């Protein structure tokens, strides 16, 4: 299937891109990697009058640390994050765990992290990580520059706070302290499918006690979620000894937190290959496994000393 006819422009500066988007109105679309846009155009589910190709704007292809935050420009490709060394500290490890679940290597070489925020798909790994870490989304439009917190940005399936004429220029994540433990676990029906559920987990541990937990849920509702109830269930809890694989007793804190995430935080919908009972069970299991992974990561960063877990 071929896309419907459209006009095309390739601006060389951000102001030129914003002008083109403003003039193009609601049926203008931004092309960065094209991971989602080109498929939707070929299926004619999206029929833009104008495609604004931002790939010739060098200032958007930047990845840098500014004031304790990582600023990811709109043209930074997924593949950059396959190396944990691309980003300082545990944040780089979290990104490297998540990115391998996104499509396939040729697509990751073109698709962009920030493009995920343009679409706001509930199954986006990056968007759920942004929710867990309280990231900020930077936009530039006809009325100037504004920043929207991730918690206020996602409105529903493929609906975001981005206004007509606005361009997402970057997403900013806070860097994580060196001994922060991170985990990311994804479950899908086949390698070619979107995640049925994925979970990002971040643990801050002091003297063996969880001081703060951050949990982002992928495809567990009509938008990316942060599992606040599950996080509260873990605050002040002893992290305990390493799990035997990922087989946890029902009274283990991570198993309990997984059930809380599934029952109180998530709002899944039934799918053709997964009814509600199955989806809630999967959310509980994957959350517990991501927390185990984050706990193991913390132990590794703390030196694996007995009692420091």
From TrEMBL:
Superkingdom of this protein's organism: Bacteria
Record-linked Pfam families: CO_deh_flav_C (PF03450), FAD_binding_5 (PF00941)
PANTHER family on file: XANTHINE DEHYDROGENASE SUBUNIT C-RELATED (PTHR42659)
Organism: Streptomyces kaempferi
SMART domains in UniProt: CO_deh_flav_C
Name of the protein in question: FAD binding domain-containing protein
The keyword Oxidoreductase is assigned to this record: yes
InterPro entries referenced in this protein's UniProt entry, alphabetically: CO_DH_flav_C (IPR005107), CO_DH_flav_C_dom_sf (IPR036683), Diverse_Substr_Oxidored (IPR051312), FAD-bd_PCMH (IPR016166), FAD-bd_PCMH-like_sf (IPR036318), FAD-bd_PCMH_sub1 (IPR016167), FAD-bd_PCMH_sub2 (IPR016169), Mopterin_DH_FAD-bd (IPR002346)
Domain FAD-binding PCMH-type: 1-178
Keywords: FAD, Flavoprotein, Oxidoreductase
Gene3D superfamilies named among the record's database cross-references: 3.30.465.10, CO dehydrogenase flavoprotein, C-terminal domain, Uridine Diphospho-n-acetylenolpyruvylglucosamine Reductase, domain 2
Stored PROSITE patterns: FAD_PCMH
Keyword Oxidoreductase: yes
């Amino acid at each position: 299937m071929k896309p419907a006819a459209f006009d095309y422009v390739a601006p060389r500066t951000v102001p030129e891109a914003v002008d083109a988007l403003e003039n193009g109105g609601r049926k203008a679309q931004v092309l960065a990697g094209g991971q989602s846009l080109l498929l939707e155009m070929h299926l004619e589910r999206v029929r833009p009058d104008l495609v604004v190709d931002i790939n010739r704007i060098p200032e958007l292809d930047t990845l840098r640390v500014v004031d304790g935050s990582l600023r990811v420009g709109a043209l930074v490709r997924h593949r950059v994050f396959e190396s944990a060394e691309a980003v300082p500290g545990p944040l780089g490890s979290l990104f490297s765990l998540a990115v391998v679940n996104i499509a396939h290597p040729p697509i990751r070489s073109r698709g962009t992290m920030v493009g995920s925020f343009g679409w706001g798909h509930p199954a986006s790994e990056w968007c759920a990580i942004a929710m867990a870490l309280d990231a900020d989304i930077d936009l530039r439009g006809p009325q100037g520059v504004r920043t929207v917190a991730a918690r206020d940005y996602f409105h529903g399936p493929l609906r975001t706070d981005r206004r007509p004429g606005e361009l997402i220029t970057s997403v900013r994540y806070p860097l994580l302290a060196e001994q922060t433990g991170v985990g990311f676990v994804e479950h899908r029906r086949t390698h070619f499918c979107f995640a049925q559920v994925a979970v990002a987990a971040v643990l801050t541990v002091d003297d063996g006690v969880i001081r703060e937990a951050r949990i982002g849920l992928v495809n567990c509702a009509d938008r990316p979620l942060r599992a606040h109830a599950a996080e509260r269930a873990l605050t002040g809890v002893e992290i305990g000894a390493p799990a035997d694989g990922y087989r946890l007793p029902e009274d283990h804190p991570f198993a309990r937190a997984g059930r809380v995430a599934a029952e109180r935080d998530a709002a899944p919908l039934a799918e053709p290959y997964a009814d509600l009972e199955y989806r809630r069970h999967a959310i509980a299991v994957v959350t517990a496994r991501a927390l185990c992974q984050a706990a193991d990561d913390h132990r590794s960063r703390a030196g694996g000393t007995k009692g420091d877990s």
